[in-house]
Amino acid sequence: MTTIDKGHYSLEELANHVGGVVQGDSGITISSVATLSGAQSHQISFLTNPKYKSQLKSTNAGAVIVHENVKESVTGAALIVDNPHVAFARIAQLFDTTPVVATGIADTAKVASSARIGSNVVLGHNVIIEDNVVLGDGVSIGANTVVGKGAHIGEGSTLYPNVTVYHGVVIGKRVTIHSQTVIGSSGFGYANDKGVWLPIPQLGGVRIGDDSQIGANTSIDRGALDDTVIGVNVIIDNQVQIGHNCVIGDHSCICGATGIAGSCNIGRHVIIAGGVGINGHISICDNVQVTGYTMVVQDITQPGVYSSGQPAQTNREWRKNAVRLQKIGSLFDRVKALEKQV
């Protein structure tokens, strides 16, 4: 993959960037990305879902990123690659117009005298950097974010506005954390003394590995004694709850509205879909996929796809099946009685 940085590229340059092969005019100039249905002649699109294959004939895109097995369906220029989705991601990064979270160090930012600040650090308005914080080179922190005592944030990381990082949290290099996310709040640890809940001090921390991405409004609790650990290149969606002392393995993916109770150990390359609930003290091995709205109540020890969510159906069908389900017990008894007669 080549490294280039400008506002527009020829299709040949993009092919060199992603290791692809051009079909058609390699000199076409591309300046942004778009969907197949909305693209114009200066834009590039992609196809990964066969559901949209028919749009290849009608798209106005200047070029389309496709796999070898559908190149004959493209009427215009194409960029042939092994993985169109990955190639599109790399090309989209070239045209990313997301504004920076801040520029320079705002005069309203408050930085403790004991904090160590690297070069080219950016701090937005009302940022608070507490005692003994360490910020690596090129860290960017948006407005109203608080970084608690003794926290470490690795070089090239970006925290969007209104993030809260509690004391002692360690965040790796090139990590992105979106707004309203809280890292290192107390885990949900209590002891019950004759009906009265007693809080247990949460004395561990949170460690987040390099190149991880954390969405908005997500909470990652600090450990009770040992740390809560998020591995390298873990992607976590919006509104995810990760309980104290969880360990999330490298390159795993956790989708929105998932709740993971404390002391779970999630393996590497695990994909957890939206709305999943995982009981406490559960272990999930590497290379597992858990589909949406699944409830995980026991360890998963074999790679594969696991489900328990009920797909939507018409209310009429659902009511009928609910009645039938209530009759399973009596049906079982009748079958057992018949078996005894045989």
Automatic annotation (TrEMBL):
Molecular function GO labels: N-acyltransferase activity; UDP-3-O-[(3R)-3-hydroxyacyl]-glucosamine N-acyltransferase activity
Record carries keyword Ribonucleoprotein: no
SUPFAM superfamilies: Trimeric LpxA-like enzymes (SSF51161)
Keywords, alphabetical: Acyltransferase, Lipid A biosynthesis, Lipid biosynthesis, Lipid metabolism, Repeat, Transferase
Gene Ontology cellular component terms for the protein in this record: membrane
Entry EC no(s): 2.3.1.191
Residues of the UDP-3-O-[3-hydroxymyristoyl] glucosamine N-acyltransferase non-repeat region domain: 28-94
Catalysis performed (reactions): a UDP-3-O-[(3R)-3-hydroxyacyl]-alpha-D-glucosamine + a (3R)-hydroxyacyl-[ACP] = a UDP-2-N,3-O-bis[(3R)-3-hydroxyacyl]-alpha-D-glucosamine + holo-[ACP] + H(+)
Pathway note: Bacterial outer membrane biogenesis; LPS lipid A biosynthesis
One biological process term in Gene Ontology: lipid A biosynthetic process
The UniProt record lists the keyword Glycoprotein: no
Pfam families per record: Hexapep, LpxD
Family per similarity comment: Belongs to the transferase hexapeptide repeat family. LpxD subfamily.
Quaternary structure and interacting proteins, as annotated: Homotrimer.
Family annotation (HAMAP family): LpxD
Protein role: Catalyzes the N-acylation of UDP-3-O-acylglucosamine using 3-hydroxyacyl-ACP as the acyl donor. Is involved in the biosynthesis of lipid A, a phosphorylated glycolipid that anchors the lipopolysaccharide to the outer membrane of the cell.
Designated name of the protein: UDP-3-O-acylglucosamine N-acyltransferase
Gene, per the UniProt record: lpxD
